[in-house]
């Protein structure tokens, strides 16, 4: 029989703070060690596993990208799993603009149940730059970049020509805004830029 399902399905803003998913105890008596394996839902990452390990020893390992985690629980004698198990997750900034429901998995001593979250819809991102069309549908030329903007922080410069965003061609300003409307505020997106006869890729975080 699978572990009891999570008690709550949080709504996550992207980017935004982490929320904790709570799994109730299943009141089974187990021998130790117990291995708990967690896979984060798509477009989320695990930030913390705030569990109560009094009376036992817990070793918690969260992957560097937060996409998975393993908890090893040990004790000298069998114990009944009556305490809740908590997993804190946050949405990635690059989650789809429309949001949606996504599921990973929570496996407690070989009993597996989904780990499900809702990601809220976002607002389309923008860049505080002045642009014009390059000749012959050759891209979007940057006229100016405010020094305090995220574009300046990413390294965009006047006279750069944006030819693609995340691999999607931007031959003119109209397509540039169509592509930008696919990504939310806070997303970091690769821009393909022509500069001085060279093609470079710049990682740009989108602004309101």
Automatic annotation (TrEMBL):
Cross-referenced SUPFAM superfamilies: PDZ domain-like
Superkingdom assignment: Bacteria
SMART domains listed in its UniProt record: PDZ (SM00228)
UniProt cross-references to InterPro entries, sorted A to Z: PDZ, PDZ_sf
Pfam families cross-referenced by the UniProt entry: PDZ_2
Domain PDZ: from-to ranges: 113-197
Region (Disordered): 1-24
UniProt protein name: PDZ domain-containing protein
Species this chain originates from: Streptomyces nigrescens
């Amino acid at each position: 029989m699978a572990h009891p399902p999570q008690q709550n399905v949080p709504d996550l803003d992207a980017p935004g703070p982490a929320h904790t998913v709570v799994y109730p105890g299943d009141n089974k008596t187990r021998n130790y060690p117990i291995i708990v394996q967690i896979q984060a839902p798509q477009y989320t990452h695990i930030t913390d596993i705030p569990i109560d390990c009094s009376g036992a020893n817990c070793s918690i390992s969260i992957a560097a990208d937060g996409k998975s985690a393993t908890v090893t629980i040990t004790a000298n004698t069998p114990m009944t799993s009556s305490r809740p198990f908590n997993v804190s997750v946050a949405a990635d900034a690059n989650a789809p603009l429309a949001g949606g429901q996504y599921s990973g998995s929570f496996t407690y001593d070989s009993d597996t149940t989904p780990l499900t979250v809702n990601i809220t819809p976002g607002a389309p991102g923008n860049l505080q730059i002045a642009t014009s069309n390059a000749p012959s549908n050759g891209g979007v030329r940057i006229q100016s970049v405010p020094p305090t903007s995220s574009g300046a922080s990413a390294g965009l410069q006047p006279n750069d020509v944006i030819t693609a965003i995340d691999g999607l061609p931007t031959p003119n300003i109209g397509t540039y805004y169509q592509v930008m409307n696919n990504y939310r505020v806070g997303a970091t997106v690769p821009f393909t830029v022509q500069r001085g006869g060279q093609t470079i890729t710049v990682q740009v975080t989108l602004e309101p």
